[in-house]
Design brief:
This protein has 338 residues and is an alpha/beta fold. It is 33% helix and 23% strand. The strands form two sheets. The protein has a five-stranded mixed β-barrel with strand order 1-2-3-5-4. It has a two-stranded antiparallel sheet with strand order 6-7. The longest helix is centred in the C-terminal third of the chain and has 28 residues.
């Protein structure tokens, strides 16, 4: 994807576009006329509102005469966004992508990390977009029965609203199943830890080598993380996929709605608790703990729910305390909210 700033050289002008790549600290914007312009942020965005454009953002770009970069002067309201707690700052959040229709969670079919998947499902549901799980490297399963068993376990965990499929780079039918999840004209965000095969999946969907792929170890089939930037890749036949580097930290932010959606079974049981603010620890009349005792809900499932709920609450308390110490007003927060 070339940087085409020459197209707009000449008199100063403004245009609209979409951020399609993030690397080197400068967003690459695809303008409405199809040209691609490397951009920097206006000082007002960085200092006054502390907002930076992310992959998928719709932006207004000023193109100064004689300047080698465009300047992002405004960012449109985001219809969806993927947000996590900033790994570098416990009381701030980080937006990773915006304006997508689907979050695809990539997890390996062998060595599936249930706790990480639960966390990913919470953050994915919090975006408000559709959610799907793709179990990669299905060819490493012992046999087809094992692959089917893992799929059923994930379906039971994720719930009926989440599409689940197993995928192998050697199986064209399974690749088509992933294409069908994305659909024509939709934008999908692909998340997952390093080495699960996200870049290989993007390459096969795009029918081109658009992302670097690390060598695969013979002993476990795991690859080395090579993708270092976020890029929106157009797919043959329509649709786009945003490949993002494997993110080790998936800290909770404001994710109450995502928690309720990812743990719909716990949330439904909680409606019958005696107290509306039941924490499902030792309160009398707790329908959730009664379900655990009756064998209707796994203790591990409740433990995960309580752990994530406690993390969300802890982050909220630290954030509110930091805002109080800064003397920040509620009106200031609403002004910056995206």
């Amino acid at each position: 994807m070339p940087d085409v700033t020459e197209t707009h050289k000449g008199a100063s002008t403004s245009t609209n576009g979409t951020v399609v790549k993030l690397d080197r600290g400068f967003p690459l914007v695809r303008c409405c006329d199809g040209a691609h312009v490397r951009c920097e942020h206006a000082t007002s965005l960085e200092k006054n509102e502390r907002v930076r454009a992310v992959i998928g953002d719709d932006v207004e770009v000023f193109l100064p005469e004689g300047h080698d970069k465009g300047v992002i002067v405004a960012i449109a309201k985001r219809r969806t966004s993927f947000v996590r707690r900033d790994p570098a700052e416990r009381t701030s959040h980080q937006v990773l992508a915006a304006n997508f229709d689907l979050v695809i969670i990539a997890e390996p079919i062998v060595g599936l990390n249930r706790n990480r998947l639960e966390r990913e499902l919470v953050l994915a549901h919090q975006t408000g977009a559709d959610v799907a799980v793709v179990l990669t490297k299905a060819d490493l399963a012992q046999d087809e029965q094992e692959a089917q068993n893992v799929c059923e376990q994930v379906r039971a965990l994720a719930g009926r609203s989440v599409g689940v499929c197993a995928m192998s780079l050697e199986d064209g039918e399974s690749i088509q199943a992933v294409r069908d999840l994305i659909g024509d004209g939709r934008v999908a965000v692909l998340i997952g830890k390093s080495g699960v095969g996200k870049s290989s999946l993007v390459n096969v969907l795009a029918e081109a080598e658009v992302q670097g792929v690390g060598a695969v170890r013979d002993r476990d089939g795991k690859g080395r993380h090579t993708t270092v930037d976020r890029v929106m890749v157009e797919l043959p036949g329509g649709g786009c996929v945003v490949d993002m580097p494997g993110v080790r930290g998936l800290g909770m932010w404001d994710a109450d709605e995502g928690l309720g959606a990812a743990f719909a079974d716990v949330d439904e049981l909680a409606q019958s608790c005696r107290f509306r603010d039941c924490k499902h620890i030792d309160e009398p009349g707790c329908a959730v703990r009664e379900a655990v005792e009756a064998g209707e809900l796994a203790q591990a499932r409740l433990d995960s729910y309580r752990s994530l709920a406690a993390e969300i609450q802890s982050v909220r308390e630290r954030r509110d305390e930091a805002r109080r110490l800064r003397g920040e007003k509620a009106s200031d927060r609403k002004k910056r909210k995206r």
